[in-house]
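STRUCTURE REQUEST FORM
Protein name: AAA family ATPase
Source organism: Streptomyces chromofuscus
Requested output: C-alpha cells
Priority: standard
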Amino acid sequence: MTVRRDFKEPARSRPDLVIGREELFTAAREQVGHGGSVLLHGPAGIGKSTVLRALAADYAEAARTVLRCSATESESHLPFLALADLLGLVLDEVSGKLPAAQRTALESALTGRGESTLQRDGLALRLAVLSALRALAAEGPVLVVADDVQWLDPASAELLGFAARRLGDAPVTMLCAVRTEGQEYDRHLRISPPDTLAVRLGPLSRTQVSALLDHRGYTGLPRSTVRDIHRTSGGNPLFALELGRALAENPTPPRPGEPLPVPTSLRALVLSRLEMLSAEARHTLLVASAGARPTLSLLHAAGRENAEAETVRAAELGLLATEPEGPAVRFAHPLVSAALYAEAPAHQRRAAHAALSTAASDPIERARHLALATTGTDPEVAARLAGAAILARDRGAPSVAASLGLLAARHAPADSVPGPDERRLQAAEDAITAGEVDLARDIAREVLTRATVPAERVRAWMVVIESAGQALGEVDAVFPQALADAGDDPRLLALVHYQLAWRALVVEGDFAEGREEAAHAAGLAARAGDRRTELLALAFQAQAETLMGHPDAPATIKRALKEPQDPQVACHHNGAGSTRFRWLLMSDQLPEARSTVTALLREVRRRGMVESEVHFLRLLAETELRSGHCGRALDLARESLRLARDSGIGEVASAMLASLAEASGGSVEQALALAREAVEHAEEDGDQIYVSRALAALGYVQLVAGDAEGTVRSLRRVRELENGLGVTDPARGRWHGDLAEALVRVGELAEAQDVIDVTREQALRLERESVLAVLDRAEALVRAAGGDLDAAVGRLTSVQDRLGKLGYGLEEARAAFELARLRARRGPGPASYDEAARLFRRCRAMPWLRQVDAAVAAGAAPDRRPAPVPEPAALEGLASMERQVAALVMEGATNREIAGRLFISVKTVEATLTRVYRKLGIRSRVDIVRLAAGRHVT
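Status: completed
Returned output:
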C-alpha cells in the first residue's frame, strides 16, 4: 500500500511564495534535494505554511510515501494525536513488519484501544515509531510534513524526535514549520534529524508587499497607501493581504493621513487582549497609538497619570514590546496600534489628539494633532498647519509637508487666502518632491474638476505632467489645455513651454526643438520675473546644447549658474548643478564631477527630494564606474534602483545604469535582465532618449557576455537613433568604441573603421580625450585583424598609458587586456596577463577578471597545431578576416578553435566560411585544404 497526499498549491499561491522568498526557497530546495530536512520558523502569518506546502509539492513526486500532520492549539492536549495523523493510514502496511510488543504498543496508541502511555510503554512505542519509518523507507523515500509544530502534543513530539535522531541513512525527509517570535527555534529541532536546516522567514520589504498585493488583484493602490500597508503589517504577508482586502471592500478609501481600515479578522487578534485591560488603560494605549513617537513622559503630559503601571500590564498581555527601549512606548506589532486606533469611537480619537496637541513638544506634531481633534473649517487651525508644513519642508520632510497641506486645505474656509485649492496644489507639489507621484496626480485631478482660476489650473496641469515622469506621451492631450488656460500670461506660458521642451526631447526625440522651447520658456520667465522657471529652462537648454555638441553650451551653462539662484533649483536633478556635473563628466574632469554630484546628493537628501536623490545616486554611480571603482559603482547603482522601484520614479534610468554596473562588477546574467527591462520599458514609454541609452547599455553587457553579434545589433540601433536625435557628442553615451570592437569581432572591419573615423572627427572637435583614447584602442584591434600586429601593440601601449593618466581605470584595464591578447597572438612564448588581472582586480571588475582567467587557461593548454601553411594565391582576393579564417582551416583548426584564437564567436566563423566558399567557388572545408596543398578542386 502506498500513501500519497496531494499537497499541490492552487495556481495563485505559488507566485506568492516566490515574492521575497527566492533565496530562502532555493536554499531549502537544495537541502531537500540532497536528502536533508528543513525547519521553517517565524511569526504568525509570515508565510511558513505556504512555503512548507510548496516544498512538499516539489518533493512529493519523488517520494513513495508522504505523511502529514497539522496540529492545532485546541487539540494539543490529546496524546498521540499528531502521531495518529502521521501513521494512521499506513498502520496496516507496517504493523506486520513490527515485533509483537512494538505492534501492540503502536496500535494501542494510534487507535485508542487499550491504555498505552509513554510511562508504561515508552521504549516499545519509541522503537515502534522508528521501526515503522524504517519499514516505509525500505520501500522508497518517505516525506514527513509537520505544520504548526508548536502545537504538537508532547507525546507525539517526543516519539517523533526519538525516531528522527536515529534514522541514520534511511531516506526519510522531514519538512516542519513552527511559529516563533524570535530566534527560539532550537528546542523544536529536537523533532527533526540532526542535519536539519533551520530557515527563518522574515518580513517582506515594501516593494515585495506591493508585488504581493498586485498579484492578488489589489492593484492600482497609491504608493502612499502601499507604504501604509507595509508599515501597518510590519511586512507580514498575511496581514498585508488582509489590509489590502479591507481596502478593496471599502467603498470610500481613506484620505491621506487617515488610518487604514483594519478588517475584523485582524482586529480579533488584538481586541480579545484589550478586553483584559481596564477602560483607563485602554485609553492610555489609544493615546499612545495616536502619537507618532509615544513615550512615558508624553503620556504623562497628555494626562495619563498611571501610564507606567498600565503599560506594564499591556506588555504582560503582549500588546506592547517587553524589551526596554528607554522611555519609548513601543507596540508589539504595528497592527496592534492600528487595530486599537481603528476600533476606538471617533470622539475618543479626537480626545486623544486634543490631549496630544498640547502635550507634544514638536510644533509639527502639535499642529497635526490639533487638526485631527478639530471638526469643520477653522482658519486658525489651517494657518497653524500651513506653518507646520513649511517647517516640515525646511526639515527635508516633504511627505509630511504634503500631509499637513492636505489637512490645512480641509480646515481652510472657502473664502480664505490662500484658498483650499491653492493649499492642495502646494501639497501636490510637496508630494512630487517626496516621490509620491500618484498622490500628487490625484490631488491635481481633483482640483481641475472645480478650479476656474487660470493660475491654479495651469499649476494643476503642471503637476499632472510631472507625475507622468518619462511617459509624457500618455499626457499629450494635457498640453493644449494648459496652453489655453495660460492665455497670454508670460509666467504661466513659461511653465507650459518648459514642459513642452521636455515633450520635444522625450516624445519627439528632437533636441533642436527642445532647445528652442527651453530658450523661449527662459525668455518668458525672465519677462515675468519668475527666476525659478527661468533657471530650470536655462539648465534644460544647456543640457540639450551639451549633448548636441552645440558651441553655445558653455555660455548657457554660465547663464544658468549666474546669481541670484533659487536654492530649490540649484540642487534639483534638472537644475544647473546637474547640467554642470554632466559637462564635467563629459570633459573628463572626473574628480570635479565626483565632488559636484556628491554635494548635490547630500543636499537633496537633506531636503527629502526623492526623485533628485534617485538621479544623483545614479550619476555618482556613473562617475565611479568611469573611474574604475566598479564595486562602489555597483553599490550605488543598486541603491538607486531600490529607491527608484520603491518610489516609482526613474526606474528605466536606474535599471539602465545598474545593468552597466552589474556587467562591470557584478552578475552578467543580472545585467542582461536589467538592460532588457530598461529597453522594454523605455520603448513602452515612447522615450527615445532612454531607448537609445538602454540599448547602449545592452550592447555593452552583450560585449562583456561574449555576444559580439548582439552588441552589433544593439549599438547599430543606437547609432541610428542618435543620428536622428541630433546627438553629436560621443562622450554622452560612450558606446562608439564598443561598437567598433564588436564589429571587429564579427569581421566587419570596414564598418568598424567608419565608426572610428566619424566619431574621431566629433571627439577632436569637442576635445574629448578619453573618447579618442578608446577609439585608438578599437583601431588597434582593426589593425591587428588586418595582420599588422606590431602597430596594434604599439598603439595599445600608448592607449593604456593615456587612459590611466585620465583616471579611467576600467578602460585602462581593458586596454591592458587587449594588449596581452595581441602579444599572445604575435609571437611564441607564454603571454602574461598579470597586468590586466592586476588592473581588473583593482577595479573589482569581476566579470572582466573572469575573462582574463579564461584567456590564461586557454593559453596554458599545450599547442598541438601544425606549422603554419603558406597561403595559396587563391586566398589573395579574400578580406582580411576571411583570409585568417581560411588559413586556420588549412592548419586543421576546428571552428571553435578558430573562434578562440581570433576572439570571435563560432557563429562568426561559420558565416565567414560561407563567404569564403562563395568567393572561391568551393563547397567545404576539405576544398580549402586541397587549395592549400595546391590540388585541383572539382
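Reviewer notes: The CA atoms of residues 331 and 747 lie 68 Å apart. The domain at 22-200 is CATH 3.40.50.300 (Rossmann fold).
Form closed.
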